Amino acid sequence: MSSWALVVATVGLGAITFWYAWQTRSLVRTTKAQADALTAAHIVVRVVVEGVYLLNLVLTNDGRSAAKDVSFSCNADISVQSQSGFRTVRLRDVPLFKNGISYMPPGTEFQFCLGPRFHILDEHSTYPRQFTLEVSHSEGRGRVTEDFFIDLDAFMETRADYNTAAAGLYGVQQAIEKLSR
User: Residue 18 and which of 3, 91, 135, 175 are 20 to 30 A apart at CA?
Assistant: First the structure.
């Protein structure tokens, strides 16, 4: 074999080796990214209907590892029912939103009662029907920030019946508030 053919064969073999090395590097990166995604903390924000008429905002770590230094913020002035249920508080004043949480293990769930669906979705309601929650936390790959767009209008006309007793009590509440003005 001539020296020219040997040079071409060596360069060709070097190019093929480089290509395989590049593909292997790419495969290793993809595999690492997939493994990180499978084992990462994954905080989810959703709205669920409790019973027939209550809308709850639920924050859950559905991932496989803990989220650290978790902070929450909301772009709207959202009110939630207090634990006693007799008064409302602003979501941003709730300790979890105000201070965050240092450690949120997998499976941890926080629920906030937004209120009765028929009140929130009433055409005369001033309750924000669309808002965004921002969740930020630290994990092995650094700081992760996600925005969750909440659209309460999606719950319009779901479940045709609502609790008539609760609706009646709401009507009484409205009448009392009108009289107290």
Answer: 3
Greatest Cα pair distance, the chain, in angstroms, is: 105
pLDDT tens, 149-166?
999 888 776 654 445 555
Strands (E), the chain: 43-50, 54-61, 67-74, 79-81, 88-90, 101-104, 109-116, 130-139, 142-151
The Cα 61–Cα 107 span in angstroms is 5
Sign of the dihedral through C-alpha 119, 121, 126, 132: positive
The CB-side HSE value for 120 (13 A sphere, CA atoms) comes to 26
Please state whether beta strands 130-139 and 142-151 pair in parallel, antiparallel, or not at all (unpaired). Answer: antiparallel
Cβ contact 59:110 at 8 Å: yes
pLDDT at 168: 63
Please give the angle made by the CA atoms of 163, 164 and 165, to the nearest 5 degrees: 90
What token pair was written down for 24?
A: 């292997």
- 49-68 average pLDDT score: 87
Name the nearest CA neighbour of 47 among 127, 138, 117.
Answer: 117
Paired tokens of 104: 């949120």
d(CA 137, CA 69): 5
